[in-house]
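The instructor's notes for this session suggest beginning with a concrete chain rather than abstract definitions. Hand out the sequence below and ask the class to guess, before any prediction is shown, which regions might be ordered.
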Amino acid sequence: MSASGGTKAIVAALAANLAIAASKFVAFAFSGSSSMLAEGVHSLADSGNQALLLVGGKKAQREATPQHPFGYGRERYIYAFLVSIILFSVGGMFALYEGYDKIKHPHELTHWYWPVGVLVFAIIAETFSFRTAIKESNALRGQKSWKEFVRHAKAPELPVVLLEDLGALVGLILALGGVGLALLTGEGVWDGIGTLCIGVLLILIAAVLAAETKSLLLGESAGTEETKKIETAIVDGDAVTGIIHMRTLHLGPEELLVAAKIAVRHEDTAAEVAVAINAAEARIREAVPIARVIYLEPDIYSEAEAAKGADREATPGGPAQHSTEH
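After discussion, reveal the predicted structure:
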């Protein structure tokens, strides 16, 4: 993910949510609508989330240190995971509590034009933010579906903003429905039901975000396309005859570690093997520029050893799924 694209979407969402949060709290103060209060807290939580994403992006740019030799790229994953926790606790759980309270103790809405006007304004602002996130994401997702993009993106910022904006738009529609039904029927309980629906929606989105960012925190391999490019780049058919096994790991959204045991000819000298390794590393970096940390271990390929299967202690996880063994 380009840092500029992600930052643009985050800033657009932050500006929209701060303006919307202020308007929702004003509407709640005048009308007493629980949907407005829940939506105001939701927008405030979203604003904090976008601030966290900006902080995470800034911290991830720090240089590597002896204590953290692979850098701080995963800071972006950590802060994205914090976003899911805040969205669940501050947004979702508060909305559930407020909705339950308003259903048990309903009251008639006053100054109905405040919540309706604010909701219309919020829908317009959130649509602008959502449009910006879609535009920035389209530049990166290629032929992937939206589901695939959210599930497999290595950079967490755009999927987080996309889901937050989608949840905000749906939540606003739910709030508008709750307020509208409360006004039409004179029953304030509908406002509480709308608030409960907002809470359930936020918890579902938070669960999806938590699951995806947890996977990134645990460490994900390169995508299928990048893996194939790396395998093709390693093997030149001359000095490097094949890949015995290979591992890849994202150290951050834009930094990839590649570790492989490669097959070389038994008659090659140490100097020739060193030249072959350096050439293979150069080919990998040219094919996949984010492959910045590369470790290649030369070995003599043995059909007899290969027939024994993977040594899980020596090579955790077994052979590479897309290996090009010879």
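Then share the key points. The chain is about 65% helix and 10% strand. Confidence is low (pLDDT under 50) at residues 1-5, 315-326.
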